[in-house]
Amino acid sequence: QVQLVESGGGQVQSGGSLRLSCVASGRDFRLGTMAWYRQAPGKQRELVASTTRDGPPNYTNAAKGRFTLSRDNAKDTLVLEMNSLEPEDTAVYFCNANPWTGIGDYWGQGTQVTVSS
């Protein structure tokens, strides 16, 4: 079993920045795709950005040009740098990971991001 722990959420004003981190832990695991999702109040959970183990990051339109995704496989860490934040970015952000085998799905507990205008 793999545990994902997120950190770095908080409250900022419009135009501000936040850095979210996700650290995976467990025994004898190797992760494949890792991603950040978010869920705003009353809305469905949506993908923000993702990356395969050795590939480039992929961003949704909401994240392009403002967010930067980075991954450290040696430390099993996924970081999302968020700049030019807007009130529409307010949501709970979740880290997600899939095992290298592709079987299974892991989620963190989520971290709240609040952007005020």
| Elements, N to C (H/E) | EEEEEEEEEEE
Uncertain parts: none
Average pLDDT level: 96
Helix/sheet category: mainly beta
Q: What amount of the residues lies in strands?
A: over 45%
Give the N-to-C terminal Cα separation. Answer: 40 Å
Radius of gyration over alpha carbons? Answer: 14 Å
Sheet with most strands: 7 strands, mixed
Query: Given the C-alpha coordinates, what overall shape results?
Result: globular
What percent of the residues sit in helical stretches (DSSP H or I)? under 10%
Q: Could you give a quick summary of the protein structure above?
A:
This protein is mostly beta strands and 117 residues long. The chain is 0% helix and 56% strand. The strands form two sheets. Strands 2, 4, 5, 6, 9, 10 and 11 form a seven-stranded mixed beta sheet that branches.
Walk me through this protein's architecture.
- The structure is a single chain.
- The chain has 117 residues and is mainly beta.
- Helix content is 0%, strand content 56%.
- It is built from no helices and 11 strands.
- The strands form 2 sheets. Strands 2, 4, 5, 6, 9, 10 and 11 form a 7-stranded mixed sheet that branches. Strands 1-3-8-7 form a 4-stranded antiparallel sheet, with no helix packed on it.
- The model has no long low-confidence stretch (mean pLDDT 96).
Q: What characteristics describe this protein?
A:
mainly beta; 4-stranded antiparallel beta sheet; 117 residues; 7-stranded mixed beta sheet
